[in-house]
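Worked example

This section walks through a single chain of length 222. The input is the sequence exactly as stored; nothing has been trimmed or padded.
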Amino acid sequence: MTAPGSAVRVVLADDQEAVRAGLALILAAAPGVELVGQAADGARAVALCRELRPDVAVLDVRMPRQDGIAATREIVAAGLADVLVLTTFDIDEYVFGALRAGAAGFLLKDTDAEGLVEAVRTVARGEGIIAPAVTRRLISAFAATAPGPAATTREAVAELTPRERDVLACLGLGLSNQQIAERLAMAESTTKTHVSHILGKLGLRSRVQAAILAQELGLARP
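Given that input, the structure is written out below as tokens.
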């Protein structure tokens, strides 16, 4: 999570040079964002994250040498950065793999400049994001095809406080911290605290994984 007031340091990886150049221009021009490294494949992206320790790694899914999923898994497991995955949104094993690997969010490649920068900032704040157009569809599709939660996970969920369960249900609907705070009539800072406690208690890497779990357990009802 980026310290308040400091620039968000970003590593960008995409094997398509023209796409990477366009994304780089957007990020480099954004106030409060510092593009510290670029890569054309996943292996180089991981190496840059180890060397530069950025706040956010923006990774394409399909890249040579090491794809975005394997790179995400390695980056997240080592605590090198939070990961924002770029996708054309094929609901397939690539996207599901990134979820399992602990990606903090997903962004469509056709997202505009403002959306890209805001997504990077959101991930840097520790909130995570999924492109609004696909939030529920992606989470629901993954939950429907993934194995059900283990008994130990169900037991851990049962140990959550009633308020934490409410927040977990809201995560399953793809709501942001601000939206959860408004829905549950509490401060956004309190929401952030609840989300942090939920992830810790359930042993999850990201709020996206929490959202999937909420869907699997049938908690995420509008």
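What to look for: The chain has a mean pLDDT of 84.
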